[in-house]
Write a structure and sequence with these properties.
The chain has a domain at about 60-108. It is elongated, with a radius of gyration of 29 Å. The chain is an all-alpha fold. About 80% of the residues lie in helices and about 0% in strands. It has helices at about 1-55, 60-75, 80, 95-105.
């Protein structure tokens, strides 16, 4: 019977040692790749800022196009009788929020 206990104890000790080794390896790899990630994040941030300013320059044209499209879809004759779009803001909506919007729009 003592053989069973020794095998169980050996297995438990082996699992703890192996998990500790994986933990140490993951810390070493994280430290090694941390500098690479910072460089990539800075490059990505520069590209994002560059693209934001590019799209914000044509804001008035975008508003005019969207307003015209919606007015032609709703068949509005006069711009003052229907509605006005003053600005457009980017909204970060999760996918479930978009699905709910489409469901509500389809029931109208």
């Amino acid at each position: 019977m003592s053989n069973v206990y020794s095998i169980t104890l050996f297995g438990i000790i082996f699992i703890f040692i192996a998990s500790f080794c994986f933990y140490v390896i993951s810390i070493i790899l994280c430290m090694a790749f941390r500098s690479r990630n910072k460089i990539k994040e800075e490059e990505i941030a520069k590209v994002v800022e560059k693209n934001k300013t590019k799209y914000l320059e044509n804001d008035e044209e975008l508003i005019a196009v969207i307003t015209g499209t919606i007015m032609s879809y709703r068949k509005c004759d006069d711009s003052s009788s229907c509605f006005k779009i003053k600005s457009i803001k980017e909204v970060q909506t999760p996918s479930w929020g978009l699905v709910e919007r489409f469901k509500r729009a389809s029931f109208r």
